[in-house]
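Hi R.,

As promised on Friday, here is the backbone we talked about, encoded as structure tokens. Could you run it through your design pipeline when you get a chance and send me back a sequence?
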């Protein structure tokens, strides 16, 4: 896994697996990256077009990202 600098403002651990999600504000956008720590691989990289103010794991494979204007659901098992 290639290491890059990222100014994370929050990290959220998965409730059951050795997976972490990292959140970083970039202007009006928010970048969320999800990493499998056992397999040492990035599972997901998502750019949300607004500031994420709250986030939580809602199932074993999905996260809810609450922005200022909308709520997003992110599945970590799909490739999009």
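Update: got your reply. Pasting your designed sequence below so it's all in one thread:
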């Amino acid at each position: 896994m290639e290491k890059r600098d990222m100014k994370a403002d929050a990290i959220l651990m998965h409730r059951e697996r050795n997976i972490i999600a990292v959140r970083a504000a970039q202007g009006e956008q928010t970048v969320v990256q999800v990493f499998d720590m056992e397999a040492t691989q990035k599972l997901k990289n998502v750019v949300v077009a607004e500031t994420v103010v709250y986030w939580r794991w809602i199932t074993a494979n999905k996260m809810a990202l609450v922005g200022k204007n909308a709520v997003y659901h992110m599945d970590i098992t799909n490739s999009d």
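One thing I noticed while checking it: Residues 23 and 53 are 10 Å apart (CA to CA).

Thanks again,
M.
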